[in-house]
């Protein structure tokens, strides 16, 4: 491993994957070691048109003794190569390969037996789908930050006819781009050169997002269907979201105080489909990526995360009394 672009305390390694029709494929694992390790770890997976740059989030975990790992999935961020279509996969299950290899490094190579899986947006859908498929013994809990649990927008977008059309077009013309109006208000509300406070690479996380392809959307909708059928994961899961969405005229203020990407009512509706032990918390004033909200709001989010962690993950069982009571 070598020093990452985030600084010398962040280390990075490239994970080679089998080639796909576009050519060679890699993923990238970024690591932050805690000063006082507790033997536990976190693996984080980013969202759509995104990559890992969340140093504050990583340090929050490291300050609690967790070794922090973050994946840049294939065709995203550090893993994107010139010959590739950014973010494109035909099945979310394709990501399981790099999650598997990252998990092996965390649990077998580095010896962590208690690991929390973390995911944001599309990553918040991919992570529980992977957990459902793999059932790793080391999975202690999950933290899902504004997970993409359903298709937002008008009801017809979720109709059987639309689902069938996406399925058919995704099979026959997977690389057909879906026309859509793209606003850069959300990106501008985040980036430090505009109205935000975060420094990240605009080539890897563009202000204008990325194109959407029918084959990729088919993969996401198949993932939604699996989630809606129920994943039956028994690990404690925290679902964080904003208290409100906003889909009217977008301004920097609405973008800084609402989720303007996903419908938070859908997130809360489907949260219980993840498993048998789910805590869903709406954070007032939060944005789509909750941990990038304004300072006071994300401080509240970290308080929620800490309280949940202490109550359901780090809680030490009371010793047996020995008298049968």
Automatic annotation (TrEMBL):
Keywords: Hydrolase. Residues 40-244 form the Serine aminopeptidase S33 domain. InterPro entries: AB_hydrolase_fold, Hydrolase_4, MAG_DAG_Lipase. GO terms for molecular function: hydrolase activity. It comes from the Bacteria. This is Alpha/beta hydrolase. It comes from Nocardioides cavernae.
